[in-house]
Amino acid sequence: MSVATIDVSGGAFTDVPDPPGKAFTPAEPPQAQGANCNWLDDDCAQQGLSGGNGGNGVAGIGGGTGGNGGSITYQVDTINGAVKFVADGGAGGKGGNGADGGDGGHGGRGGNGNDCEFGLVGGFGGNGGRGGNGGRGGNGGNGGSVLVICGIDNSTNSDPLSAKGGKPGLGGFGGQGGAAGAPGLQGDSTGYFSASSDCPFPGIPPIWGQPGSPGDTGGSGIGGNGGSVALKVGQP
Predict the structure, then answer these.
(1) Overall pTM surpassing 0.85 (yes/no)
(2) Is it the case that residue 236 has pLDDT exceeding 60?
(3) How far apart (Å, rounded) are the C-alpha atoms in residues 112 and 140?
(4) What band does 226 get if pLDDT is binned at 50, 70 and 90?
(5) Which DSSP state fits 19?
């Protein structure tokens, strides 16, 4: 025997917020100043500027709240197992994912030797930005109310009346950390040059930046409160 259901449950929140856009990545710095060559003295080229750090990702948007259950009042002479009354709360929505962190900036190119000194090394790579935290899950909707009044109860199903609270929504995932920035290139050492006492070597080679850490997963929402159910027999 099929069971007919009278259902006034609240709707589940099914839309998932879109994640915010990836955080910014700094532009590469301009090339560092080259060597100054003159007949009195040679000034060294400058080391490249360090790349900027990527921006941190924005947190995800929280999930929506499930709908509240409605209200049912039903009066009949005889109730049997062929009918069920439901006024459950709707499930909360999933939180949105956090934005990805911005990539670290590329280190700036070192200054050129300009035919008199070494071209100097480039700048250090920038660090990637941290990913944004996931959004919090939405709360479940509250259960509604069910009141059934009958003269005879012949129901055989074990749970003919239901007004449960809605399930909480899950939190969104954290965004990915930004990529590490690459070190800058060394400036050119062209033509005839020699290492002077002021500029004995082109400098210590730069290194990559650090990758950004991922964001945290958002917390779950709160389950909805249960509603009220009552089956009164002997009051047709």
Answers:
(1) no
(2) no
(3) 64
(4) very high
(5) P
Strand 4-7 and strand 42-43: the pairing is unpaired
Whole-number pLDDT of residue 107: 98
What confidence score (pLDDT) does residue 198 get? 73
Q: DSSP secondary structure string, 79-124?
A: EETTEEEE-PPPPPPPPPPPPPPPPPPPPPPPPP-TTTSPPPP-PP
Distance, CA of 236 to CA of 151 (rounded, Å): 4
Query: Which residue do the tokens 């069910």 mark?
Result: 146
List Cα–Cα distances, 109 to 52, 119, 144, 189, in angstroms. 13, 10, 67, 13
Grouping H, G, I as helix, E, B as strand and the rest as coil, residue 176 is coil
Please state, in angstroms and rounded to a whole number, the distance separating the CA atoms of residues 125 and 178.
13
* Angle at CA of residue 185, ends 181 and 190, nearest 5°: 175
Tokens 């929140």 sit on residue: 13
Contact yes or no for 153/187 (Cβ under 8 A): no
Residues 6+ apart with CB under 8 A from 197: none
Q: pLDDT, tens digit, for every residue of 50-65?
A: 999 999 999 999 999 9
Which is nearest to 10 in space by CA: 75, 72, 82? 72
- pLDDT above 90 covers a percentage of the chain that reads 70
The average confidence (pLDDT) of the chain is: 91
Alpha-carbon torsion angle 2, 229, 169, 221, nearest 10: -170
